[in-house]
TrEMBL record:
InterPro entries recorded: Tyr_Pase-like_PTPLA
GO biological process, one term: fatty acid elongation
EC numbers for this chain: 4.2.1.134
UniProt record similarity statement: Belongs to the very long-chain fatty acids dehydratase HACD family.
Top EC class for this record: lyase
Entry protein name: Very-long-chain (3R)-3-hydroxyacyl-CoA dehydratase
Keyword line: Endoplasmic reticulum, Fatty acid biosynthesis, Fatty acid metabolism, Lipid biosynthesis, Lipid metabolism, Lyase, Membrane, Transmembrane, Transmembrane helix
Chief place where the protein resides: endoplasmic reticulum
Subcellular location: Endoplasmic reticulum membrane; Membrane
Organism this protein belongs to: Lodderomyces elongisporus (strain ATCC 11503 / CBS 2605 / JCM 1781 / NBRC 1676 / NRRL YB-4239)
Reaction catalysed by this enzyme: a very-long-chain (3R)-3-hydroxyacyl-CoA = a very-long-chain (2E)-enoyl-CoA + H2O
Amino acid sequence: MANTSTSQPNKWLVVYNSISASLWSIVFFNTVFLASSLGQPFVFEKTNYLNTWIQTLAIVEIFNSLLGLVKSPLFTTVTQVFSRLLLVWGIHQYLPFSPANYHWCYITLCLSWSITEIIRYSYYAQNLRGLVPHWLTWLRYTTFYVLYPTGVFSEVYQIILSLPTAGFYYGWFLRVILVTYIPGFYMLYTYMIKQRKKVLGPKKVKKN
């Protein structure tokens, strides 16, 4: 019987997750270096195209979920991927002169996304190999408590700052999207809390 860790789908997922972790590491180090040395508007000007295409690569995750290669719920995956695509294509590219792009929230957005994805993709790649260390599992199912709120706050703030430059119709579209963030964040956040309990389990108190 063949080892499932060497099956073709798993090989593809290991490669995809490993490459994705490496690409998001570039986003992280670029953001940290440029933010500490040059600041805005240079952070956006020098990173937005690369960041956009790295985030666009996440569309692959929708197909992975659709084909049953991963256990992630399709609706949750689609919601998360498209909410980010709205930012990178609908704000950073479509509204290049939006004040949001040159605000500090662009930096916090990149940091929140990149740290989350480095941990997430590294965890997936190592888990598929059966070599995931406990500290990486803990990071995967704990750091979201901070990184998800900071990421969502940065996304929402970017949209709000972009409203004056969005025009009438696109501005109303963005306002509708803002409303969907409330149930979307609740759904994603509670899903991760449930996953954390499932993976790490509750702390057991020893009885004397």
